[in-house]
Amino acid sequence: MLLTSRLRRSSPRTDLAGKVALVTGGARGIGAATAAALVGRGVRVVLTDVDRKALDEVVAGLGEEHALGIVAEVCDLAAMEDAVRRGVERFGGIDLVLANAGIASYGSVMGVDPATFRRVLDVNVNGVFHTVRAALPSVIERRGYILVVSSLAAFAPAPGLVAYNASKAGVEHLANALRLEVAHHGVMVGTAHPSWVDTPLVQDAKRDLSAFREMIHRLPGPLKRTTDVETCVQAFVDGLERRSRRVYVPGWVGAVAQARMLLTTPLGERPTLQHAPTLLPRMDEEVARLGRSTSARNLAADVREDREPVTPRT
């Protein structure tokens, strides 16, 4: 962890003023708050989200001279390409990308709704690919930086969140491969690994599932702590400024990352295995009673986008 901190401090800072950032999932939570912080640093932002009303409110608060809001689904490559095109036309190009949009599902491999599982992978993995694919020509032209939001879950899996775990591990490695592909263009790529952050994603899960709340409570040491959005935003902005290879939120997540091989050994799995036999069946029972394997917010977003909604299970 000390080595990680030293490396982060030694990274050169870049002047954010005058840059243009593409932020997905920009209508609320970390995306909206990071966009506001970037505008405060002189960055103009292109925000995408599926919630038009919330997106319009964010743009109105930031000022149309600083922000462009575009309703676009990250699972739709053509929509993301159009969003980037409009952002380039408005602000001249894209220097920074924050691939932030993501959702989660509830339930074990046997309990989660398969359609919801696929939807999480579509948003969290394909959505990052589409975001990067669309923005990359402009980012290469401007020798920019891409920050892909992964998670502590990429290397510290939690039972009952299998789709989220898999998707966040997947986008971490997507970013690792991308880094090798674009380094010779002068483009840098990083991954962000937050622990539990007090966002709608975590709030909804806590509200829906008592087993989820208890699972977090039973985690050892700092793993049970929830970080405030402001701390996460500060780390993201610092990562964008430093063009960091890794952003850990909070900093102790870096120590967990360095010990990732230990986490999937019998010793590392022992604390989780003590509680999984009772908590996981409870979670699946609660998911079944809900009739859905994701938050009501995510289902509403599917309906707003006129997609065929994920069918609630009874």
Describe this structure in words.
With 314 residues, this protein is α/β, with parallel strands linked by helices. The protein has a domain at 10-200 and 226-249: NAD(P)-binding Rossmann-like Domain (Rossmann fold, 3-Layer(aba) Sandwich). 55% of the residues lie in helices and 11% in strands. It contains 13 helices and seven strands. It has helices at 2-10, 29-40, 52-62, 77-91, 114-141, 162-182, 200-208, 210-218, 229-242, 253-258, 260-263, 266-290, 296-304, and strands spanning 20-24, 44-49, 67-71, 96-99, 145-149, 188-194, 246-249. It has a seven-stranded parallel β-sheet, sandwiched between helices. Helix 3 links the parallel strand 2 (44-49) and strand 3. The longest helix is centred in the middle third of the chain and has 28 residues, at 114-141. The chain starts with a helix and ends in a 10-residue tail after the last helix. The relative contact order is 0.14.
Q: By CATH's scheme, which homologous superfamily of one domain applies?
A: NAD(P)-binding Rossmann-like Domain
CA gyration radius, whole angstroms:
19 Å
Helices and strands, in N-to-C order? HEHEHEHEHEHEHHHEHHHH
Shape: globular
Task: Return the CATH class of one domain.
Answer: Alpha Beta
**CATH hierarchy: architecture of one domain:** 3-Layer(aba) Sandwich
Major sheet: size, sense and barrel closure? 7 strands, parallel
Q: Any low-confidence stretches, pLDDT <50, length ≥5?
A: 1-10, 306-314
Q: Numbering strands along the chain, what is their spatial order in the largest sheet?
A: 3-2-1-4-5-6-7
Mean pLDDT: 88
Please give the number of β-strands: 7
| Helix content, binned percent | 40-55%
Distance between the termini: 46 Å
Strand content: 5-15%
The CATH topology of one domain is given as: Rossmann fold
Number of helices: 13
Structural class estimated from helices and strands:
alpha/beta
